[in-house]
Amino acid sequence: MLLLGLGGVAGVAVAHAAGPELSLSLGAGEGGRLSGSLQVVILLTILSLAPTLLIALTAFVRIVIVLSFLRQAIGTPTMPPTQVLIPIALFLTVFVMLPVFRDVQAKAVQPYLDEEVTEMEALQRAYEPLRAFMLRQTREKDLALFLGAAGGERPAAPAAMPAQVLIPAYMISELKTAFQMGFLLFIPFLVLDMVVASVLVSMGMMMLPPVLVSLPFKLMLFVLVDGWNVLVGSLLKSFR
Length: 240
Known about the structure:
Radius of gyration: 25 Å
Distance between the termini: 22 Å
Order of helices and strands: HEEHHHHHHHHH
Helix content: over 70%
Strand order of the largest sheet: 1-2
Low-confidence stretches: 1-32
């Protein structure tokens, strides 16, 4: 739905003249809409940019970084495997972004399919719910950083915040939040590692790696506190 809302911006028609010459024309169809062939071209281009859009405009960054921190904190850097971790992050991202996607569907995609708005209007409408979501997660300090770097003044209204300022500021804010949550994840497992290491040293078993001994205890602790439920619940509640 999001990709359809972002797709369809320009039109290309290729015609062969007599001989080896090739002519290229740009134009719109009836009612100012693009030709169907070029809409397909633009849609394929948007699909190729889908991973970048997913990372830059959604909750995926925070979720996947926190899940990666969890693997490191427990001491199992390959478990859960990446093939499992990424789908979990994707489905959680869809869950968090579902209200935004519904707004995009109602305000941009459906009017465009009903031929009520043009491609550019649909693109602008699709960006509005995403901008509102990103503004709620972005820190004022990060916005000021990129506004200053761009040499612009602070807009009078949040809706006037330019995308070239908001998107990088949003990503920096997401990284900071993810690292803060990762730090809190490490604390209980680090304490457990220190306790196990102290016990092994007091018993004279200095040749036995403390990480190897503490791993079963960390797994047991994570299971006893229902760690996946607590972690996913905290992630979902962290989005405003």
